[in-house]
Amino acid sequence: MLDVLKTLSALVKQKHQQPIPAQTVRPTQVAAQKEDNKPAKKGKKQPQIVEPSVDFEAQRKLAEAQGREIVLEAKDEALRIRREAELETRRLEEDVRAREIAADRKDAALVDREKRILDSEDANLKKREEIEALRKETLTKLEKVAHLTRDEAKDLILTELRSELAEDVAKEIKEAEAKAKEEAEAKSREILVDAMRHGATDYVSEYTVSVIKVTDEEVKGRIIGKEGRNIRAFETATGVDVDLDEEGVIRLSSFDPVRREIARVTLERLLRDGRVQPGRIEELIEQVKKEIDRIMFEEGQKLCHAVGVYNLPPPLVALLGRFKYRYSYGQNMIAHTMEETKIGIAIAQEIGADVNVVRLGCLLHDIGKIVTEKEGNHITLGVELCKKYGLPQKVIDCVAQHHEDTPFTSSESMIVYIADAISGSRPGARYENYDEYVKRLKDLEDIARSHKGVTESFAFQAGREIRVIVDPGQVDDATAVVMAKEIRDEIAKKVIVPGSVKVTVIRELRATEVVK
Question: What is the pLDDT of residue 143?
Fold first, then answer.
């Protein structure tokens, strides 16, 4: 309505602002005006012209009439709009009324339905009560007829059934046990073979020899430097020993495979660069260390992702990357870990064990082998490392028990042990110089026999344990304890062994007599 009134007001203002038409001027008047403009002649009187007046009153009345017409038209339009609005309002009110009626009907229907449900529940409850009363009445009648209570009748029936079925049950149990024994061995072989098939990889044994070939023997002189300052700086910065005695090659030796790799890459770059001096050596070593750290972290990530392990702490990922430069009897640790994990996962899936525990246990079982800052065997160091980063206890048990050092506490630990044994003992996985192996065992036994009072010594478990038997008449208990420590220290100085060696001194006194 306000929009209509604003429109009408604008129309009225427009009518009032229309320009008034100009008064028509006759030709005679124009001629008269021209005559007035001419200079008057002397002695002749000019005629006076009367200008016509404009009829403003007529124009005002005309405008008012037009305004009244516009107002009337506006009122008609406003009445029409009002009628349409009233009709629309009535329609909406009727629609709302119809919806309210429909809602009332639905509410009434729901109330009626709820009432019927309640009535039905009451009827069902009454029926159940009637059935229960009838059942009790029937049981009472049966007890009176049989002269037995319900519990006594139940025990009697069960006793008869047990006696009848005992023979059949025993027979079925024996048959099931026999069948299980027949199938167990075949099934176990099938599981292990399938696991080995899953773990089969294209693998070529690599040997732990860091050798750099040189074409010119003069290069060795530059490496040595004046008064040996270059080679001393190199060995001090890298922590490796440089052997230049063999012609045509340079050998790098170190127990730390990462240091040996850093030294190898640095020396190759020095030979290509030609500038062999202490400052340049230290600069290149720092560069190579950063590159090797990055490479090891990337290799650790690849290994974790390859076996389906994610969100492992970054320090553990970096340590796993050190497997790239670590070998065990010629078998690369990354290849061994990946192979073992695949085998373990396959076995766990087949027997229904916890796959995630086996996956982590296989991945981290040898993590202690690349810890060089502490003393101890790789199992102890691996367990400490797993505890440090808060890994689950089941995973820690898998690491602690994968060489049977402690009894198995779960099937997952046993699976990790089996997978490790399969990967390490399969043909072509590892190699060893058997002459050196026999020599190491003989050296261990000879060190033990060199002590006074020792009668026998036996090295076993691939040289990881030695047992010494002493004469109880020559060696007492206190001396046996001291002897074990002395043998341990002597082995540490004279023999290079993989991992740790357990020394056990046995003193036993037996008195035997024969009755004749």
Answer: 73
Is the sign of the CA dihedral 120, 125, 129, 135 positive or negative?
positive
Residue pair 296/257 in contact (Cβ under 8 Å)? The answer is no
SS (H, E, C) 418-437: HHHHHHHHCCCCCCCCHHHH
Q: Are 470 and 492 in contact (CB under 8 A)?
A: no
- The CATH number for 328-425, chosen from 1.10.3210.10, 3.30.1360.120, 2.40.280.10, 1.10.1040.10, is 1.10.3210.10
Tokens of 174: 């024996």
* Least confident residue range of 45-59, 298-312, 351-365, 380-394: 45-59
Q: How many residues does the chain have?
A: 516
Is there a contact between 279 and 300 (Cβ–Cβ < 8 Å)? no
Residue 186: phi and psi, rounded to 5, are -65, -40
Reported as a single tens digit per residue, the pLDDT across 266-302 is 888 888 877 778 888 888 888 888 898 898 899 889 9
What's this model's pTM, rounded to 2 decimal places? 0.49
**What is the distance between the alpha carbons of residues 465 and 404, in angstroms, rounded to a whole number?**
14
Tokens of 490: 């002597």
User: In this structure, are residues 442 and 424 in contact, taking their beta carbons and an 8 Å threshold?
Assistant: no
Enumerate the β-bridge partners of residue 415. none
Is 208:327 a contact under the CB 8 Å cutoff? yes
